[in-house]
């Protein structure tokens, strides 16, 4: 391998002064995305990384073939009922993207589908492969069928910057309308009569801040029906399952305000459920003569309330607050409610039938994740749910409320003779520096010698939980003698709202020290060498633990990593910065927050010590974590730290989620897993 690396500095230096602290950023020039020198630098880094990993090509190819060989490439989703149709998607061998279809409904049971065969009367709504054409990147932002089933709204992105173009298709004639709206955000909602579509757009800081109303066939500029001027808030719009109300939510990290509009009166005015009150979050669904309101007013883990449609600010408890149970969501149906909750680090479902006692569904595995999924019909006696664990592939069930029978509709096929009984999963607990017990989820192949090399995954921000999940690609590690573990660190939501509060703002360092405590707990009985992995805010975690305890890790994978948080959060002109102040604090106006963030920012705290090998993966068109954060971080690691090697790989035509096609994504995962295996000397 050549020792020549890309030049990592220019003569032009950026100087930052805040709260009396002056800092020189010698790599700030990499921020200039349109500068040919920046593009040349990133391409040189890619060439260097390619050369540094050329010996992994055979292993990478083997893992790709394993992922491909375990995947039923021609497959179908379980049909979901909506009105007079069953909707489903299918994939075909050799094609990168899914195909969305529907077929006329007959009876209450979903039709039996056979992979590779079309049902009589099948209608293709969208073929992602045809839409993508030869584009190296393609993504769909929304697909929404009008309530009467005659019109389709959909949006597409061909660059990865998450700005979509909205189009409409007449499903009766299969004709594409001339209506076209560029630059929209995710999501959207139809009016009740299907004449009007509501959508959102973002401001210059990539904050969805305006809702527009588009009347089909209109050539006039679409009017703004709501604009959110508070830079801490973002907005979204949807149609209630009952199709009675359009629901427009404005949310910050800590506060909510919801408006509703009669869905059959799209030209009307949205009215407020309850005016925003700092620190009070709430979400709304509709059932018959009442709204269901999930809120945290004097209820840290949230409670469920009901409110009359004609007096929506009057909340009466339906499920009171419990200190041991975090209420996550409520789904309202005509004759029952379904509450998704979290308790003891696991998710669950509570059914509230009209006129009968509530009850909870039970599942046999020690670790699992369950959630409602694909419940479009308001009038139904069945609940569609998704279930998975670290050994059980994603499974789709219907729960029949009258009989309380759980009916397995489909479990994702895993080819090649996969048997869940060959693997086992465990829950362990580490003790953090302050005595807090931190849960760990572990999966390993039975018979694997311990201590085993371990891939340890973590996230720990935004109350996002990394619940137990199945992965086909992970089998390539487990079958080579690895253990896989998830550190459920504070800052996530695994143990309730308090778990999140104890890992944000001026308690953010708990996220990092929890992860190190988990690594130290695993070493010995469970784990030999540990490679850590995390992405986005989990990439911040990776950078922080590399500074905090580099000796504990045999390698670090940081994907689209948020490793320069201080510089980013100091700049309110950047996407999402002001919104993020409720998560990280405001270092621009608060000297204490500035000092605290500077004390843990990975980029600011690279040390002259031996670091493990680090692989940073990013995307040039990412609008959430800019490519320059990992580029600057890797450059500083090379300049200051010892050890390594420190590698940077940039997808030049992708966004925050990486490459879009499934085969491309498998190649990328095979590359990453081959690098991980190489850290412990596994070469085949």
TrEMBL record:
- Supply the SUPFAM superfamilies for this chain: alpha/beta-Hydrolases, Peptidase/esterase 'gauge' domain
Show where the Peptidase S9 prolyl oligopeptidase catalytic domain sits.
Answer: 469-680
InterPro entries for this protein: AB_hydrolase_fold, Pept_S9A_N, Peptidase_S9_cat, Peptidase_S9A, Serine_Peptidase_S9A
Q: Which Pfam families match?
A: Peptidase_S9 (PF00326), Peptidase_S9_N (PF02897)
Transmembrane regions listed in the UniProt entry: none
Question: Record keywords: Mitochondrion included?
Answer: no
Provide the GO MF annotations for this entry: serine-type endopeptidase activity
Swiss-Prot/TrEMBL GO biological process terms: proteolysis
Q: Which family does it belong to?
A: Belongs to the peptidase S9A family.
Query: What is the protein named?
Result: Protease
């Amino acid at each position: 391998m050549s020792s020549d690396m890309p030049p990592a500095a220019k003569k032009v230096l950026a100087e930052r002064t805040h709260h009396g602290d002056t800092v020189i950023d010698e790599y700030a020039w990499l921020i200039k995305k349109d500068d040919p020198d920046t593009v040349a630098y990133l391409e040189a880094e890619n060439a260097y990384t390619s050369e540094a990993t050329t010996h992994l090509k055979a292993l990478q190819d083997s893992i790709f073939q394993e992922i491909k060989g375990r995947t039923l490439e021609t497959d179908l989703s379980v049909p979901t009922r909506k009105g007079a149709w069953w909707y489903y998607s299918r994939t075909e061998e050799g094609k990168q993207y899914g195909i969305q279809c529907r077929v006329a409904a007959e009876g209450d049971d979903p039709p039996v589908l056979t992979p590779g065969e079309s049902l009589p009367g099948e209608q293709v709504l969208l073929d992602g492969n045809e839409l993508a054409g030869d584009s190296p990147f393609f993504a769909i932002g929304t697909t929404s069928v009008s309530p009467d089933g005659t019109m389709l709204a959909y949006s597409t992105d061909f660059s990865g910057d998450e700005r979509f173009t909205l189009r409409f298709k007449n499903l009766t004639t299969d004709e594409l309308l001339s209506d076209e709206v560029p630059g929209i955000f995710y999501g959207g909602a139809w009016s009740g009569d299907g004449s009007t579509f509501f959508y959102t757009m973002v401001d210059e800081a990539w904050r969805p801040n305006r809702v527009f109303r588009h009347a089909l066939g209109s050539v006039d500029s679409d009017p703004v029906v709501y604009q959110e001027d508070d830079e801490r808030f973002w907005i979204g719009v949807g149609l209630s399952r009952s199709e009675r109300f359009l629901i427009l939510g404005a949310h910050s990290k800590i506060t909510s305000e919801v408006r509703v509009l009669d869905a059959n009166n799209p030209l009307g005015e949205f009215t407020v459920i309850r005016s925003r009150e700092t620190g009070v979050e709430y979400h709304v669904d509709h059932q018959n003569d009442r709204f269901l309101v999930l809120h945290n007013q004097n209820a840290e883990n949230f409670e469920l309330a009901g409110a009359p449609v004609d007096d929506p600010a009057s909340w009466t408890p339906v499920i009171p607050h419990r200190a041991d149970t975090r209420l996550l969501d409520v789904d309202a149906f005509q004759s029952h409610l379904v509450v998704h909750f979290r308790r003891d680090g696991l998710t669950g479902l509570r059914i509230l039938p009209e006129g009968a006692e509530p009850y909870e569904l039970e599942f046999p595995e020690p670790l699992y994740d369950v959630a409602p999924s694909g419940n479009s019909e308001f009038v139904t006696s069945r609940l569609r749910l998704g279930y998975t664990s670290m050994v059980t592939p994603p499974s789709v069930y219907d729960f029949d409320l009258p009989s309380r029978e759980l009916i397995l509709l489909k479990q994702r096929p895993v080819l090649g003779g996969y048997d869940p009984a060959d693997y086992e999963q465990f829950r362990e607990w580490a003790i953090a520096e302050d005595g807090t017990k931190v849960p760990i989820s572990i999966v390993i192949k039975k018979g694997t010698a311990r201590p085993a090399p371990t891939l340890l995954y973590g996230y720990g921000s935004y109350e996002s939980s990394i619940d137990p999940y199945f992965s086909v690609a992970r089998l390539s590690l487990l079958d080579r003698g690895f253990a896989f573990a998830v550190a459920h660190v504070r800052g996530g939501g695994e143990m309730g709202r308090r778990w999140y509060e104890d890992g944000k703002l001026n308690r953010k360092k708990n996220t990092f020290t929890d992860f190190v405590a988990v690594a130290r707990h695993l070493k010995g009985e469970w784990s030999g060498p540990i490679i850590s992995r995390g992405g986005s805010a989990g990439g911040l975690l990776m950078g922080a633990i590399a500074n905090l305890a580099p000796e504990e890790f045999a390698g670090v994978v940081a994907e689209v990593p948020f490793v320069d948080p201080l510089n980013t959060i100091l700049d309110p002109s950047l996407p999402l910065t002001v919104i993020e102040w409720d998560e990280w604090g405001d270092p621009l106006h608060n000297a204490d927050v500035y000092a605290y963030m500077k004390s843990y920012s990975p980029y600011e705290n690279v040390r002259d010590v031996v670091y493990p090998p680090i692989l940073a993966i990013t995307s040039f068109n990412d609008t959430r974590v800019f490519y320059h954060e990992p580029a600057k971080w890797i450059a500083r690691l090379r300049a200051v730290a010892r050890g390594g090697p420190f590698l940077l790989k940039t997808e030049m035509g992708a966004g925050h989620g990486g490459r879009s096609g499934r085969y491309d994504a498998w190649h990328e995962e095979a590359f990453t897993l081959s690098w991980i295996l190489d850290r412990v000397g596994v070469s085949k």
